[in-house]
Amino acid sequence: MVRRFILAVAVVAITFSFAYSDNFLAKVTKVDGSKVTYQKGTFNKDTFMVEYSGDTVTTEAIKDVPVTKGGGFGGKGGKGGKGGKGGKAEPVEGGLTSETFKNIDKEKGVPVRITTADEGDNKGKITEIAITGGKGKGKKKDAN
Hints:
This protein has 144 residues and is mainly beta. The protein has one helix spanning 2-19, and strands at residues 21-32, 35-44, 49-52, 57-60, 67-69, 90-91, 110-117, 126-131.
């Protein structure tokens, strides 16, 4: 009986933690101090690609916003497969001031997953940035 109660409390707590934040895919096109400019994206299940549309949006990030790389959405992570990192997201040294966010190509941007707060003191601010892509694999070359 006590176990069920504790489990129920844990489930409710997790549910509320997700209710107070918004997660979405985006590409960052500019970082100026704590101001992050991005364009929202949606995952296309047919092409397995993220498609970006709409206008760019500039939002303020919280102080010392956590920036991570790898991990993805439960996949194998940054260097998955044998000898990989096993899906663990690793902090990016320097956060928004890292080399990743300097001299960003405005067309390509930096693919990320952004989390913003829906309530509280940080409402509307970016509370987490997870870099989701790298340089990409490009097109496969013909084996012949």
